[in-house]
Amino acid sequence: MNDTFEPTIVAFLCNWCTFTAADLAGTSRLSYPQNVKIVRMMCSGMVDPVYVLKAFLEGADGVYVGGCWPGDCHYINGNLKARRRAALLTEILKQFGIEEDRFWLRWVAASDGIMFQEHSKEMTEKLRALGPSPLSVDRTIA
Amino acid sequence: MTAYSKLSVTEGSLNESLAALFKSMLEKNVVDAVLVPAHQRPKGVMQTLITEPGGLVQIDPFAPVVPVSTATLVSKLTNVPSGRPLAVVMRSCEVRALLELVKLKQASVEDLVLIGIDCLGRYENADYMKLEQNGSTSKAFLEAARDGMGAKSADEPHVATACKICEYPVSDNVDIRLCVIGCEPNEVFIEWVSDKGEEARKALGIDVQEAPSGRKEAVEKIKKTRIAERDKVFADIHERVNSLEKLRDYLAGCVNCYNCRVACPVCYCKECVFVTDTFRHPGDRYVSWADKRGSLKMPTESLLYHLTRMTHMSTLCVGCGQCTSACPNNIELSQLFRAVAQKTQARFDYHPGRSLDEPQPLAVFYAEELVEVTGQVK
């Protein structure tokens, strides 16, 4: 099963940093797994927990939230709010069998295309090993 | 050490003695009104805002029923403050929820004299109505429940599960306490807890007496029993509902009526996202969801609703059990939410209702904290 399983990762990326980094990865011809489906947000601080929950309930195998490093937020502290919410969400998800490896919050600077590529590869690998989310619909990446 | 006074209760007159106390508060202008549970016509007990001493005839503060959390009612009374001093009679869970609403700026305790009653649990509304019709009195309930859980025999209704697992039989953060735990039958002690309470005592001209001797031990005993029961319930829920499929099964009866969030004293959104256009989908979306998995349970998004509520209020959950009471399909929501809340509150070392000085977990954030969430160090 794990040989053919390709996880779907929904990535909510901050416009000012992680999204720019993903863009930079692209323009630098750094390839990263197609498993990562990007949703561009204005700030990691506006990723409402309900978006993350919805993604899991719709069958996402993992959710990645990318924000600016503490101190670098375009809106001063949106990323710090995101971190509090992520801690809360992790506690809730853990209780219902959604492992911590399925929900990531990471800081990626706008200049760090390489880091975004690394995170994408690492998370995809981890989820391949972990297998499909219990709510995953049976499907492969087109 | 706070001061105590004894309120003597002669046979059958618990409520009369309490009415005399409140009457004195109104007449001596300690407060302009008292919010206190009172019998309604033709049946039931509801919180009642009483300004005329004559209205005190029907009061029954220890009636073991809470149709609506008093925190919700006090929010209505103080959201825009009346500017008039009010006494409110509340249970521990209601006081704790009220303090959370104060932090959310949806209530105020400025003009209030908070009177906390010892809580030996409450029945579900329907059960209480039946007991009331059968002539059951609060005094009889207290006598039977004083040492324990309130259930007298197997075929009689039990107090709500939320109450059986509540480790707070005594209200903290109040001005005055009406104590029955560790007191003799026919005794109610008034504890003058805060400065405001002490001022009230002086204004009422009530003498200080010796504290009830066995109170501390009796309170500890009840706490211990309830904590043991609570931990059993938590362990059971954590084991029984440890996956999203099991959560879906646990919530299988949910019809998206949203009664649980209406009843919840700390569900704070003025407009719930689940009743907005966000969740009013066009027909083709439902059909496409059905397409994706071959079938679609309707109404949809029950699981999303409950999980969202957990992200909103689990850190503030006071375990009052109103969600369970409000559920038309007997889903044991309170146990589930408390079990989740145990984990989320622990993550932030937060105790709802403990102190007005403790900020709510999602209302603050710091640069230097929770480094383990991303695990990244610059």
Layout: helices, strands, pairs:
The complex is a heterodimer of chains A (142) and B (378).
Chain A (H helix, E strand, L loop, with lengths): L8 E6 L3 H10 L8 E6 L7 H9 L4 E6 L10 H18 L7 E5 L5 H18 L12
Parallel strand pairs in A: 1-2, 1-3, 3-4
Helix pairs in contact in A: 1-4
Chain B lengths: L2 E6 L5 H14 L5 E7 L5 E6 L19 H9 L7 E5 L1 H12 L8 E6 L7 H9 L4 H8 L15 H4 L11 E4 L7 E6 L2 H10 L10 H26 L3 H7 L8 H5 L19 H11 L8 H12 L8 H5 L6 H15 L31
Parallel strand pairs in B: 2-4, 4-5, 5-6
Antiparallel strand pairs in B: 1-7, 2-3, 6-7
Helix pairs in contact in B: 2-3, 8-14
Could you please describe the fold and organization of this structure?
Chain A has one domain: Rossmann fold, CATH 3.40.50. Chain A is α/β, with parallel strands linked by helices. In chain A, 52% of the residues are buried. Helix content of chain A is 39%, strand content 16%. In chain A, strand 3 (62-67), helix 3 and strand 4 form a beta-alpha-beta unit. In chain A, helix 1 packs across helix 4. With 378 residues, chain B is α/β, with parallel strands linked by helices. At the A-B interface, helix 2, helix 3 and strand 4 of A face helix 9, helix 12 and helix 14 of B. Chain A: Pfam families: FlpD. Chain A: GO terms for molecular function: iron-sulfur cluster binding; metal ion binding; oxidoreductase activity.
Descriptive terms for the model:
heterodimer; A: 142 residues; Rossmann fold; B: 378 residues; alpha/beta; globular
The total of helices of chain B stands at 14
Instruction: Report the structural category of chain A.
Output: alpha/beta
Strand order of the largest sheet of chain B: 1-7-6-5-4-2-3
Distance between the termini of chain B: 51 Å
What is the radius of gyration of chain B computed over CA atoms, rounded to a whole number of angstroms?
Answer: 22 Å
Would you summarize the structure shown here?
The complex is a heterodimer of chains A (142) and B (378). Chain A is α/β, with parallel strands linked by helices and 142 residues long.
